[in-house]
Amino acid sequence: MVIAQLKRAMAYACVLLSGLMLAQAAFAVDLAGVKIDETAKVGNQDLKLNGAGIRYKVIFKVYTAALYLADKKTTVPDVLAAPGPRRIELVMLRDVSSEDFSRAFMTGIQNNVDKADKSKIINQLLKFGELFASIPELKKGDVLTTDWIPGVGTQIHFNGKPVSETLPDQVFYNALLKIWLGDKPADSKLKTLLLGQPA
């Protein structure tokens, strides 16, 4: 009888441990209460978390950012040249007006993209700016995902719903990535973290 009870206890412990391991596998890190998934499915392909961190403005936490790629990359050129789908996912940590958010995005592109590339994607930049007109405010907990799917283009979702037509040029997607990974990134510590390196 004692042996039977021990076996039951061992079985229960195994089930409990398996459950905890599965829960841990579902997300890689917890940033300011936001659980960052270890993987993401984009264009029917499973991507791995390359890196994640918090965007700070002065002392304020603005959003979490997570970069997903098919394979881990630790340098900006490798990320920009990476084949296959990619995702950058932002989760808001505070309320921000769409005007301020849009301005920050456009400033990031202005600071990090050369004139030649900007001239190639001017129409896509205009359409990208228009999407913020449909979102009056980004609130704490809102999720903005920007996906690159080869042969399709850039797809942008806000809380799981598409908010823009597909934008076809990879130069445009790389311009977006340079907001965080360019020579003048939005947050230099966040850039390091997105590249999977310790800050």
Break the fold down into its secondary structure elements and pairings:
Layout: H1 2-26, E1 27-31, E2 34-37, E3 39-42, E4 45-57, E5 60-69, H2 76-81, E6 86-92, E7 96-97, H3 98-112, H4 115-120, H5 122-131, E8 137-138, E9 143-149, E10 153-158, E11 161-162, H6 170-181, H7 188-194
Antiparallel strand pairs: 1-2, 3-4, 4-5, 5-6, 6-9, 7-8, 9-10, 10-11
Tag the structure with descriptive keywords.
single chain; 199 residues; alpha+beta; Chalcone isomerase; two-stranded antiparallel ribbon; 11 strands
Describe the structure.
41% of the residues lie in helices and 31% in strands. It is an alpha+beta fold and 199 residues long. It has a single domain, classed as 3-Layer(bba) Sandwich (Chalcone isomerase). Helix 3 crosses helix 6.
Summarize the entry for a quick read.
The protein is an alpha+beta fold. The protein is built from seven helices and eleven strands. It has one domain: Chalcone isomerase.
User: In percent, how much strand structure appears in the residues?
Assistant: 25-35%
Number of domains: 1
CATH fold name, please? Chalcone isomerase
Which architecture per CATH? Answer: 3-Layer(bba) Sandwich
Low-confidence stretches: 9-25
**How much is the radius of gyration in Å?**
20 Å
End-to-end Cα distance: 55 Å
| Alpha-beta classification | alpha+beta
The shape, in one word, is globular
Number of DSSP-assigned strands: 11
Quick check: average pLDDT? Answer: 88
**What percentage of residues falls in helices of 4 or more residues?**
40-55%
Largest β sheet strand count, sense and barrel closure: 7 strands, antiparallel
Order of helices and strands: HEEEEEHEEHHHEEEEHH
